[in-house]
Amino acid sequence: MKPVIFCLEDFEIHRSLLELNLRQLLGETVTLQFFRSLAQLKNCPTRCDVLIADLNVTDSHAEETAEFLRMFAVHTPVIIQSSEAHWPQQLEAEHPGRIVAAEKAGQGPRFEYTLLAWLQTIRRGTTKKNSELGFPLSTLNGPC
Questions:
Q1: Which of 29, 44, 60, 99 could form a disulfide with 64 if both were Cys (CB 3.0 to 4.6 A apart)?
Q2: In which residue ranges of the chain is pLDDT below 70?
Q3: Which value, to the nearest 10 degrees, does the dihedral of the CA atoms of residues 49, 84, 13, 102 take?
Q4: Which pTM was predicted?
Q5: How many CA atoms, within 13 angstroms, populate the side-chain half-sphere of residue 93?
Q6: Would you state the pLDDT for residue 82?
């Protein structure tokens, strides 16, 4: 089963650039799903392995999105891509290793390193958990 990456981005140019960069970096080895609003993401019935999120989206200001990401990061790693001045670093400090502030639109070494490292861990964990527990990763991950 391919890892699933959710992307919360409402600005079309950033979304397109993010998708292009993810496809160049990962090819078809992952499943990508994009959301334009926090409400869409909250109502998603499926699960993901990594969330890439902007903080300011159409239906949510940075503070509200940050609160959601705090809860989401308990069960799913989050990469924040935002031009906000303080929220990304504050969230990363609150949840070290679970939330990472990275460059916008999937461009830059921090974004690339974090995503590749997490996906490698997910893939190794999936193999181990499948053999030990008989469960796919998606059933062990929290709800989206």
A1: 60
A2: 126-144
A3: -40
A4: 0.84
A5: 5
A6: 86
Positive or negative, the CA dihedral 110, 118, 82, 66 is negative
Q: Is the Cα torsion angle 38, 42, 48, 50 positive or negative in sign?
A: positive
Q: What is the DSSP string of the chain?
A: ---EEEEE---HHHHHHHHHHHHHHHTTSSEEEEESSHHHHHT--S--SEEEE-S-BTTB-HHHHHHHHHHHTTTS-EEE----SSHHHHHHHHSTTTEEE--GGG-SHHHHHHHHHHHHHHHHHHHHHHHHH---HHHHSPP-
pLDDT of residue 126: 62
| Residue 11 contacts residue 54 (beta carbons within 8 Å) | yes
Burial class (CB in 10 A: 0-12, 13-18, 19+), 11: middle
